[in-house]
Each structure stands twice: as C-alpha cells, then as structure tokens.
Amino acid sequence: MASLIACPHCGPRPKEEFTIRGDAGITRPTPDAGEDAWYAYVYLRDNPRGRHKEHWHHTSGCRRWLVVERDTMTHAIYAVSDASAPGETA
Amino acid sequence: MVDFTLPHRPALADAKSGSFGAPATGNRIMLAALPEGHVLQVLGSKGSAGLEDLIRQIGGGNPNAVRAYSPGQWFVVGDAALSPADISGKAALLSGKASIADQSHGRVRIGISGTAVETVLAKGTAVDLHRAKFPVGHTAMTLIGHISALVTRTGENGFEILVLRGFAESLWDELIQMSLEFGVDATVNH
What we know:
Chain A is mainly beta. Chain A has one helix at residues 35-43; strands at 4-7, 11-14, 19-23, 51-57, 65-71, 77-82.
C-alpha cells in the first residue's frame, strides 16, 4: 500500500489519515437502468494490476475527496487531485 | 424556559498538572490549558474565493486567530467568550459569502512550547514541523497518535493544538508522555 499521499491541499501525509472508497472510474447508472447495471455498479469490481484511479477521503486532514492514481503492484503514486471539478472549491 | 443552570466546567479542569519527567532544565516543555474563550468554524459558500481578508476581520486582526485548514474552511479562535449577539455581529460582516458555526463548547486549545517542541510533536504526527516548512501562523489538521487535532505554530518554539473537547484530556496525558524525556511543566489555570 502506498504510504505517503501528496494531498493537493495539505501536502504529503501518511495513509493513516485517509479513508479509501474505491474505484474512481465507475459511473452511477440511471434509476431505470435495470437490475444488471445496478448489480454491477453496487457489487462488481475489477482487481487491476498496475495503474488504478481511486477515490480517497482525507478524513483526518482537510476532509476533501481526492482522486489518487496509483500502481497496485509497485505502490507508486502518479497523481493526486481534488475530486471536485475545477472552480467548485470554495 | 430553563429549569436549572448548566455550569460550564473547563474540559481540562481536573487534568494532570505539575512537573513530570527528566529533571534537566535546558529544554523543558511547557504545556498549558488555554482559556476556553471562543472557537468559531467559518465555512465559505460554494464558489466563493478570496475570502481571506474577510475572515481576518472575523478574527479581529489578532495574529494567529485565523486558522485555515481546508479549502474554504477556517477556525477563528480567541481568549474572550462571545455572546450570541457578538457572533451574529461577526456573521453580518460576512454578508452571506460564508457562515459561522460556534464550536466554543466543543473544542479546546492546548498550548505547548519549548526548544524541543518539534521533536515532541513529531512523535505523534507525520507533518513536517520544521520552521522552513511550518512557519509561524501556519496550520495543519492532522492526527496526533489516533486523535484528530489542528496544529498551529504560534511562535518560534510554540504551538497551539485545537482538539475535540472529549479527546482533550486524553491528548493532554499523551503530550505529557511524549515530553517526559525533556521534562515537562503542565499548568491548568482556570
């Protein structure tokens, strides 16, 4: 597991300050998308080897949701950015 | 209609006080329970940027009163207790660009100082506390051990820690423990 996350608001912080939500690449289906689409959205996840984008919450810091792009094999961190669209942050 | 009065009891009133640890005097740590005056959380409304000057007015121009810890979020602290009228007077200054949540009852300030203060705090947090990276006035929300706390440098060798009231005594005991190798004088003046 990657151990130092460069939070765009707080600087480098240890992973203990964060909560991981999971894959940042999946999109929520429409309410009438059907049972299969919803089953996949709620339960089915890939277990990739290599580059992976995830939502991380800086729970014990700025409490912002971040998108962390990391390597599941080497634990390298490629990029960390705020999950909100640019300009939406107060 | 209030049937009985709720007495305010400072969170650290019964905390450990006195001198602990090494008898050496050179770089002793001073630990102080600071007055429970006011702690205001200021939250910027969505899309509002450049509020810093406005928030400084809420702090009344006192150095280190305003503590930024997240985009659009600040804590404003001070030694004086504020009435609800004082707080709504401050909220009016913000003219809708931000709102104030009074946290005076819920968070407690602890002062810690001494030449070895960075070494002591580094036992609990991974934040780089060196003066070059963490100058006077700088603030960081972080974990000290397992306790979430807002750390602010208030002087060359002094920090203030803002912590949830219920965790204050636990953190107080841990800070004493972390300071034992230098010797520590803990004072609770309320």
